[in-house]
Design brief:
This protein is mostly helical and 161 residues long. It has one domain (8-157). Helix content is 72%, strand content 0%. α2 runs parallel beside α3, α2 packs antiparallel against α4 and α4 (80-114) runs antiparallel to α5. The chain is elongated and about 70 Å long. The two termini are 35 Å apart.
């Protein structure tokens, strides 16, 4: 579905909405472009980057252990060293993805949410970013996200009735 931000088409629609807000303010443009970059890199790594390659390797290793030790391979003492290696590598890969792609995405989302929206389209996009990226639930976010949305809507709708 085009409105699902977890599909390529959904992300494309979301990014197109972001691009449509560019051109009114340089600070806003930088924040939007940083957010798009972080979002694209995060998803790309999951689909065909290092995270995806690790997931494929992990899957093959688990299948190999299952074929060698049976469906209960996780409980088999003979598989413990290989099981521990698989788990350690999975944790390391997840930590790398979080450090290299999630943390920049989270930071870009925070910065975008704190950047004043220059237009109503930008404010609507910002509200969607706050929802999609769960900035409202981010313990590192220094403000109340709802207050920001209220401020933006009030500022941009003043005088129009």
């Amino acid at each position: 579905m085009a409105d699902d931000p977890n599909t390529p088409v959904g992300r494309m629609v979301f990014h197109q909405a972001a691009l449509a807000t560019l051109g009114a303010d340089a600070a806003w443009d930088r924040a939007v472009l940083a957010f798009i970059k972080a979002d694209v890199l995060q998803h790309a790594d999951l689909e065909f980057g290092a995270a995806a390659k690790h997931q494929a390797k992990d899957y093959r290793a688990r299948i190999g252990l299952e074929s060698r030790y049976g469906k209960e391979w996780r409980l088999n003492p003979a598989a413990q060293a290989l099981r521990d290696q698989i788990y350690d590598e999975a944790i390391a890969a997840d930590d790398a993805w979080t450090r290299d792609y999630c943390a920049p995405f989270w930071q870009a989302g925070r910065e975008l949410a704190l950047t004043p929206a220059p237009t109503m389209a930008a404010a609507v996009f910002k509200a969607n970013v706050i929802e999609k990226a769960e900035i409202w639930n981010d313990s590192a976010f220094p403000r109340d996200a709802m207050e920001i949305v209220i401020e933006e809507m009030t500022r941009l709708c003043e005088g129009s009735a």
